[in-house]
Amino acid sequence: MNSPTPLHRRTFLRGLGTVMALPMLEAMMPRPRLLAAMTGLGQPSAPRRMVFVYSPNGMNMSQWTPAAEGTNFALPAIMQPLQAHRNDLTVLSGLSLDPANAHGDGGGEHARGLAAFLTGVHPKKTAGADIRAGVSVDQIAAQHIGDHTRFRSLELSCDKGPRAGTCDAGFSCAYQYNIAWRSETMPVNPEVDPRALFDRLFGDPDAGVAAEARDRRRLLKKSVLDFVRDDARSLQARLGVTDRGKLDQYFTAVREIEQRLDRAGQFPVPAIPAGIERPPALGDLLYDQHLGLMYEMLALALQSDQTRISTFITAHEGSNRPYPVIGIPDGHHDISHHGNDEARLAKLAAINRYHVSHFGKFLDRLKSMQEGQNTLLDNCMVVFGSSISDSDKHSHMGLPVLMAGRGGGTITAGRHIQVKKDTPITNLYVSVLDRMGVEAQKVGDSNGALEVIA
What we know:
The chain is about 30% helix and about 15% strand. The protein has 13 helices and 15 strands. By secondary structure, the chain is an alpha/beta fold. It folds into two domains: about 1-45 and about 210-270 and about 275-280, no CATH class; about 50-195 and about 285-454, Alkaline Phosphatase, subunit A, CATH 3.40.720.10. The strands form five sheets. A seven-stranded mixed beta sheet has the order 5-10-3-13-14-4-15, sandwiched between helices. A two-stranded antiparallel ribbon has the order 1-2. The protein has helices at about 30-40, 110-115, 135-145, 175, 195-200, 210-220, 225, 230-235, 240-265, 285-305, 330-335, 340-370, 425-435; strands at about 10-15, 20, 50-55, 90-95, 155, 165-170, 170, 180-185, 185, 310-315, 370, 375, 380-385, 400-405, 415-425.
């Protein structure tokens, strides 16, 4: 058993221009709760987290929706990469996003879809500065519990796009590249650069020398761990065997991310096939690397309790990114308008499966992180989905949505649930907020809580 003197949950390791939050350790639990966690008599005092991961351009729904309901469902082709987590999933069929429909505004399904996905509000059609949507579910949570962590919320994306001007049929680009909205008129721009995200997570904003220390680390080819070594040694002397092992794993993960960031620009970018426009890129970082790094750092941010609320846009809505890494040089958006062509549908399913595969690796990381008797995944609610189901029709009904995790024991996972037709997806958000300790009578167009996930 660990030291009788518990650590404060907000313990940090510090060095020159560096601050490192720690994962949940047994030494941070009050002794009665630690005993309960070790003996199975109760739940450890681990916080709950909520994450929303967005996948663009809809799905090949015939290969997404499980055939059977209840607990005896088989994962269809697109979800096969999640087989190891089948019992951690709640697949929800039939949820709708009516605010993304035209309602007299004509085109703009992609911009409306992303803007409405977490707000449940029909965005104002404008390409000017008078944008208006609604407060997103993540920001509702951040307003209530964001002060409990270093970052009130963490907004991530793999696409850096214009924040103004017209992007989709008269809708501002602000709608198409932002999923989080702090107020009706204020979207929250996501972090796109993995290196900048790393510096945010492991730089000390109070030291006033974070940038200098970062530059010195890179010049000397030092790790952020070198700068907190003395503090780390002092801490490890106070920890038990279990916590020392957990800390070693955490440090290893941080170092591996540093090495991946250093390697990322060292390899040549494959040639783009003739006729295909190269998508926006961040330096020489390959998309596959980019996506993996962002997921990995999100896992560390949750593990170290730097935030309990996050959104991640894996690619912006309407993205026409090609996927040569899986043998598809065609643009994603072009493929999504398949016209029921078998070849296009197969390519769309392959892209969908690619995104689910990366999501599965993220779940692997969350499940590998222990918090008492539970895993980090057990204490999470990770919603994965899209604002479009049938991409050829731009349908916003019967959305592809699943949730991973058990919300700290409040969700019975391992089920496929068919909800009542036209049930707003925002009903799910009301239930998620309730499990985060946030009382919200309404989110956007919600008309109640989604009680079936209990």
